[in-house]
């Protein structure tokens, strides 16, 4: 319990403000496809660092719990993560993913929206939201969300393919 009190006294810095991100995103957007995977991994590593040892530990344990199917534990830990570090976008992104896995679509969308509010370049969240929009029959909104994801990570083959398919479908519809 003392651990939580110390973390609350020292809020986590917003990971998305790391000055290395701008250069990585620029390289990802205009750079070589061969380096895209490496740059994407570096971006995600930076996003996953809350600048708080306590929050990072809780986040890692929540991720591990989710990977092992302990979704209730993962959600409980992520509630602490987002409470202790309300500007840590990746905490909301992971909680949204876990909520989606547990069929809490509304909670997932809420968390994904918060993650995008904190880090608009979060291309992974945009791709997941595009799929959610698509599953809800919102083809145009899904297409736009895929396009926004591709603005930040044009090397995402899945998002590019999905956007192409949607573009063909939308072109055949009346406006």
UniProtKB/TrEMBL annotation:
<dbReference type="InterPro" id="IPR011990">
    <property type="entry name" value="TPR-like_helical_dom_sf"/>
</dbReference>
<feature type="repeat" description="TPR">
    <location>
        <begin position="123"/>
        <end position="156"/>
    </location>
</feature>
<keyword id="KW-0802">TPR repeat</keyword>
<feature type="repeat" description="TPR">
    <location>
        <begin position="89"/>
        <end position="122"/>
    </location>
</feature>
<dbReference type="Pfam" id="PF14559">
    <property type="entry name" value="TPR_19"/>
</dbReference>
<dbReference type="InterPro" id="IPR019734">
    <property type="entry name" value="TPR_rpt"/>
</dbReference>
<dbReference type="InterPro" id="IPR050498">
    <property type="entry name" value="Ycf3"/>
</dbReference>
<keyword id="KW-0677">Repeat</keyword>
<protein>
    <submittedName>
        <fullName>Tetratricopeptide repeat protein</fullName>
    </submittedName>
</protein>
């Amino acid at each position: 319990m003392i651990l939580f009190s110390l973390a609350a006294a020292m809020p986590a810095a917003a990971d998305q403000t790391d000055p290395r991100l701008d250069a990585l995103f620029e390289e990802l957007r205009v750079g070589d496809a061969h380096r895209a995977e490496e740059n994407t991994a570096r971006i995600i590593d930076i996003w996953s660092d809350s600048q708080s040892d306590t929050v990072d530990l809780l986040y890692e344990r929540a991720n591990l719990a989710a990977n092992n199917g302990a979704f209730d534990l993962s959600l409980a830990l992520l509630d602490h993560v987002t409470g202790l570090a309300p500007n840590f976008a990746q905490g909301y992104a992971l909680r949204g993913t876990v909520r989606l896995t547990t069929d809490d679509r509304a909670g997932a969308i809420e968390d994904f929206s918060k993650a995008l509010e904190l880090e608009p370049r979060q291309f992974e969240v945009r791709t997941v939201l595009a799929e959610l929009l698509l599953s809800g029959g919102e083809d145009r909104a899904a297409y736009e969300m895929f396009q926004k994801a591709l603005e930040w990570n044009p090397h995402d083959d899945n998002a590019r393919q999905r956007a192409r398919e949607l573009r063909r479908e939308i072109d055949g519809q009346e406006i």
